[in-house]
Automatic annotation (TrEMBL):
Residues 6-152 form the Lactate/malate dehydrogenase N-terminal domain. This is Malate dehydrogenase. It holds the Pfam family Ldh_1_C. Gene3D superfamilies: Lactate dehydrogenase/glycoside hydrolase, family 4, C-terminal (3.90.110.10), NAD(P)-binding Rossmann-like Domain (3.40.50.720). It comes from Rhynchophorus ferrugineus. The active site is at H187.
Length: 332
């Protein structure tokens, strides 16, 4: 029997965590037979709500959930954790861009970077979900110098899942028949959802996504903006931001990182940029990656069209601006 894995979820009393905790506790992320001890962090005023979440986790009667540690103390929350879902942060409301949350949220990720540095395992894998996720992940990594910077990632998997779903619906195939859609750049409306390298299996035959879709105007004028603005569309409809789908994406991201991507498949993750594909260095940029033995690697050698180049530059520039703003907020 494997040793229990300690996993922290921050914002544990919030709406994403409400779906995510069940997925993690029932074995969707680390494997169905991996015992888990869940550390649940939220702020002091949410401790009553968190008590209810703890009751419900017990009532789920999950065989591999071996312990639950609810707390408002980062020292307890981050102690000896091997995986960290950093969800706790303010969500945006209608009419806001995600970067409008920098002022409210970035300091949380400085404090949590420091706590990870002090208390977590040195090989902890960190997924930042709280927005603006890419820049929060960058700041978090900067305040955790004893943990390798490649262990800090930001979530663009929800955008990838949205993109895959749009293409599957357009072609009329089940979702698993669409692979290798890429999200480049920032988890914001400047992101570039790219179907050029994606494949779709139709009636047993694997085609490139543009061949399967057979409608390049749809790809440029419907697919791209729909994915870029999907978060805002959900907020407009629900009056709250995506939660169930965000939890599923967080679970997909961490599972693929821990357990590896399937041969021939890649996924999108916000990772520390090494300048691949002309992206700016030292920002957390979403790239296509493969994962193996707990490590990610950027997929190299994909052709970038002139119009894709322009889109990559726009989203890269936004990340550089966010980095500057985040540093100003922290140093103020
Ligand atoms: N990267 C992505 O694809 C997505 C990111 N998000 C972001 O995820 C974040 C959380 O969203 P929701 O769960 O819907 O929000 P929510 O408001 O329902 O829950 C957030 C929770 O975080 C807690 N919290 C605040 N500061 C904290 C701190 N310093 N330490 C620990 N907990 C803290 C709050 O008390 C609250 O319980 C938001 O920033 C949202 O914009 C949401 C959807 C997708
Ligand atoms: O749009 C938002 O603010 C929440 C989010 O990040 C998403 O749904 O992608």
């Amino acid at each position: 029997m494997a040793e229990p894995l300690r996993v922290v979820v921050t914002g544990a009393a919030g709406q994403i965590a409400y779906s995510l905790l069940y997925m993690v506790a029932k074995g969707d992320v680390f494997g169905p037979e991996q015992p888990i001890i869940l550390h649940l962090l939220d702020i002091p005023v949410m401790m009553g709500v968190l008590e209810g979440v703890v009751m419900e986790l017990a009532d789920c009667a999950l065989p591999f959930l071996r312990g639950v540690v609810p707390t408002d103390d980062p020292a307890v929350a981050f102690k000896d954790v091997s995986a960290a879902f950093l969800v706790g942060a303010m969500p945006r409301r209608e009419g806001m861009e995600r970067k409008d949350l920098l002022g409210a949220n970035v300091k949380i990720f400085k404090v949590q970077g420091e706590a990870l540095d002090k208390y977590a395992k040195k090989d902890v894998k960190v997924l930042v979900v709280g927005n603006p996720a890419n820049t929060n992940a960058l700041i978090c990594s900067r305040y955790a110098p004893s943990i390798p910077r490649e262990n800090f990632t930001a979530m663009t998997r929800l955008d990838q899942n949205r993109a895959q779903a749009q293409i599957a619906a357009k072609v009329g195939v089940p979702i698993q028949q669409v692979s290798n859609v890429i999200i480049w750049g920032n988890h914001s409306s400047t992101q570039f959802p790219d179907a050029a390298h994606a494949s779709v299996t139709v009636n047993g035959q694997t085609l490139s996504a543009p061949e399967a879709v057979k409608d390049s105007a749809w790809l440029d004028t419907v697919f791209v903006p729909t994915v870029q603005k999907r978060g805002a569309a959900v907020i407009a409809a629900r009056k709250m931001s995506s939660a169930m789908s965000a939890a599923k994406a967080a679970s997909d991201h961490m599972r693929d990182w821990f357990l590896g991507t399937a041969p021939g498949r890649f996924v999108s993750m916000g990772v520390l940029s090494d300048g691949s594909y002309g992206a700016p260095k030292d920002v957390v940029f979403s790239f296509p990656v493969t994962t193996k033995n707990g490590k990610w690697e950027i997929v190299q050698g994909l052709t970038i069209s002139d119009s894709a180049r322009k889109s990559l530059d726009v989203t890269g520039k936004e990340l550089e601006e966010e980095r500057k703003e985040a540093i100003a907020v922290i140093e103020a």
